[in-house]
Amino acid sequence: MSDTPNPDLPFLGVLGGMGPLASAQFMLRLTLLTPATRDQDHLPAVLWSDPRVPDRTAARLSGGEDPLPWLLRGIGGLEAAGCGAIAIPCNTAHGWYDGMAAVTRLPILHIVDAAAEELARLGVSRGRIGVMGTAGTLAMRLYQERLESRGYDCIVPEPAEMEALVSPGIALVKSNRVADAYAPLAEAARILKARGAAAVVLGCTEIPLGILAGPHAEIGLPLVDTIDALALSALRWAGR
Amino acid sequence: MSDTPNPDLPFLGVLGGMGPLASAQFMLRLTLLTPATRDQDHLPAVLWSDPRVPDRTAARLSGGEDPLPWLLRGIGGLEAAGCGAIAIPCNTAHGWYDGMAAVTRLPILHIVDAAAEELARLGVSRGRIGVMGTAGTLAMRLYQERLESRGYDCIVPEPAEMEALVSPGIALVKSNRVADAYAPLAEAARILKARGAAAVVLGCTEIPLGILAGPHAEIGLPLVDTIDALALSALRWAGR
Q1: B56 and B37 in a common domain
Q2: Where would you find the membrane-spanning parts of this chain (chains A, B) (predicted)?
Q3: Does a structural domain hold residue B74?
C-alpha cells in the first residue's frame, strides 16, 4: 500500500437497509474480511441504508407497493457519491435485478453468483443443495434457476415449514430478536439436511444473523452465509 | 408508524471509515438500539465510510496530512444524499469540528456531548472521570474542556501508559485483532479506576470494540461506550 491515498479510487456502493441489521453486518464483515493493518488499507464504501423500501416479499406475493422506485433512488444516490460497483445485501431485492441493471452503468454484484462461488470454495461443486430464503425469494426461483444452471439440484423448505419456521425466524431478526431466531431457523436447516442437502445456502441476509447467534456448528453441514459471500465478492471486485 | 413510508424524511448522515470497523459497529448499534418490529420502523441513514481520511492523530501531533479536505468531501456527499444531520463515529475527528460546522448547514451531533449525556444517564453527574482516547484526542483536550465545563474532573492515562497500553490497543482494533486488544485496554481502564475515576469514557470508537471483546464487567466501573452514546444521540435527533 502506498502512503498517499488515491482520491480517485471508486467507492463500493452498498444498497442496504433491507434489513438495516443485515447491511450493518455486511459493512462489519466487509471490514473484518479485508487484509488490513490500518484504516487506510480498507475499502472506501458508501452504504445507502433505506429501511423504507417497501417489503419485497409482500410486493411479489400479495400485491404490496413496488420497491423498484425506492431501489432506483438508492442507486442514483450511490452513483452520485462516486461508487464504482453496487452490492445489495438483500437476497429478495435481487428479484428486481434486471430493472436496476437497466438504469445504471455500474456493475451490480449478484448475491446468488456470490453464494455459488462460496459453495465452490467450500468444496461443494454439485449435488443437492438446500436453499432457505424469504417466501418471495423462493417463489421467484432466484436461487433455483441460477444454481441449477451450474449443475446443483435445489431443495427448499415446504410451505408449512416456511410458515412455521423460516418466515417467523426472519421476522424475529427484523425486530432485533436475533437470539430467538436461532431455534426455528436451525430447525429448518436440519430438515433440509435430513432430505439430503450437502450444504444449505442462507439465502436471506437475516438468516445468518439468526443462525450464527446460536450453536450453528451442531447443525452439522456447511452453511453459506450470503452476507460473507457478497462481502468476499466485493473484495474480489476491488482486487483485494 | 404509518404504513406509507415518508420519502421526505431526512437521512441520518454518518461520516465514517475512521476506523471502518467502528462505523460499521455504529450502524449495527444504531439498528439494535432502535425500537422496531420491521424494516420500515428503522432510521434511513447514509454511511460515508472513507478509510482514506489521513490519520487524525498523526495530523495533530506529528505534522501528518490534514484530514479536513477529506472530511469536507464526505460532508458534501452526505448533504447531496439528502441527510438532515451528521454523526461522526470517530472521536479524534472532532478536533476538526469547527472547520466542518463552518461549511455545512446541517447539525453535527458532537460525540463528547453524547458521552456526557450517557454519563448522566448512568447516574455519574460529577466527580472524577477517566478518559481514554487516542494521543491526538487527549492532546487536543477534546474531552477535558467539554467535561470540565460540565463540572467533571478529568484524568487521562500517563504518557507511558498511552505508549504501552492505549495506543497499541487502538492499533490492534484497526488491524482487526479485536480480541488481542482487550488486555492492554482493560489494563489502562483499571489504572484509571485505581486513581479514583468513578467511570471511564472510552473516547475513541476503537476502544469499546476491544474492551467489549473481553470480560469487561470485571473492570468494575461504568464504561461509556462512545459508539452507543452517539447512536442514542442520533435516535434522539430523529425523535425515536
Answers
A1: yes
A2: none
A3: yes
The answer to whether the CB atoms of B44 and A30 lie below 8 A apart is: no
Query: Has residue B3 been placed in a domain?
Result: no
Query: Same structural domain for residues A48 and A126?
Result: no
C-alpha closest to that of A204 among A65, A47, A21 = A21
Please tell me whether residues A125 and A181 are part of one structural domain.
Answer: yes
Instruction: Using an 8 Å CB-CB cutoff, list chain B residues near A9.
Output: 52
Q: Is residue B97 part of a domain?
A: yes
Q: What is the extent of the structural domain holding A200?
A: 112-226
Burial class (CB in 10 A: 0-12, 13-18, 19+), A77: buried
> In whole angstroms, what is the distance from residue B131 CA to residue B141 CA?
10
* Grid coordinates given for B85: 444531520
The enclosing domain of B62 has a CATH number of 3.40.50.1860
Which neighbouring-strand residues pair with A12? A45, A85
Minimal-distance CA residue of chain B relative to A74: B81
pLDDT at residue A1 greater than cutoff 70? no
Please say whether the beta carbons of A45 and A231 come within 8 A. Answer: no
Q: State the Cα–Cα distance between residues B237 and B240, nearest whole angstrom.
A: 8
B167 vs A: CB within 8 A: no
ipTM of the shown complex: 0.94
> Is A174 in contact with B6 (Cβ distance < 8 A)?
no
* pLDDT tens for each residue of A12-49: 999 999 999 999 999 999 999 999 888 888 999 999 99
Give the neighbor-by-neighbor strand order of the sheet with A11-16: A108-109, A83-87, A11-16, A45-49, B45-49, B11-16, B83-87, B108-109
